[in-house]
Amino acid sequence: MKVYSWETLIVTILVCGVAIIFQVKNIIEGDSLSYLYLIFWIYLTLKGLWVSLTREGYEEDWFRETVHSKATRKLFGSWAPIITLGGYIIIILAGVIAKFIPSSKYLPIGLLFVGLIYNIVIATLLRKQIKIEKKDYF
After folding, report:
1. Residue 49 contacts by C-beta under 8 Å, 6 or more apart in sequence?
2. What is the reported pLDDT for 105?
3. Quick one: pLDDT band at residue 120, thresholds 50, 70, 90?
């Protein structure tokens, strides 16, 4: 059996394996919601193995990543990595402020909502650009 993506295979085995073990532990302890999480992690494991071990999966994943990177570069230029991660940076900043400055009650909540809205706007813009990029391929 040929491995097409060693990185995806290793990350799938490590991350999904640990998550599946953790969810099984939670199921044994009696957490009924862990069944849903277990199904989710099994799905991600199968998807990761499909991408890693099949040519079709690897090519589809490569195509998606290529279209995504071209769309982000076309929209944001050299600022693409910073702009696409900007919402997460704002959300993390809100968490840090909430943890280390507990007297500020509304600032972390405001930053959290700003980060979420920012992510939604960027995702919408990217989705539209990705549709345009996919039309160029077909």
Report:
1. 9, 12
2. 86
3. very high
